[in-house]
Amino acid sequence: MKKHASLPAALALALAIPGAAIAAPARAQPHDCRVRVEHAWVRWLPAGLPMGGYMSLHNGGTRTVALTGARSTGFDGVMLHRSMRRGGLDTMQPVAAVSIPAGGTVRFAPGGYHLMLMGAAAAVKPGARVRIELRFAGCAPQPVLFRVRDASGRP
Hints:
The protein is mostly beta strands. It has a single domain (35-149), classed as Immunoglobulin-like (Sandwich), CATH 2.60.40.1890. It contains one helix and ten strands. The chain has one helix at residues 9-16, and strands at residues 35-43, 51-59, 65-71, 75-86, 89-94, 98-100, 105-108, 113-120, 129-136, 142-149. Strands 1, 2, 3, 4, 5, 6, 7, 8, 9 and 10 form a ten-stranded mixed β-sheet that branches. The longest helix has 8 residues, at 9-16. It is globular. Residues 1-29 have low confidence and may be disordered.
């Protein structure tokens, strides 16, 4: 085997072993992933009912950013949902993503977009904080502390 002194070790190994793969370096995060999260809170509900998570997302970047999901070790599941009124009936649907335009703000509020928090791992009470990791397309996950409010939404 001929040595390739000027090549990085991984490349030299790949050249020496047919079929070997070279791992690509991690993609750098775009510089315009500047989503600010404000007014993050969770509406507590009794008896293990799913809770709603609300917040304002402000995109300080130069391109639209999409919120594509959320997770929390404190809950079995966290989903993006949207409530709306259709034909006189209130409905709720899961959504795959929520776009935040460059320089714009999207509010998650009762009766609109919200996080659906299901299956709390431990008892959650008003006044507590829960950590939820928000996931944006092309950006690093963003952990956020949400304040738990009572069923009426009061702190």
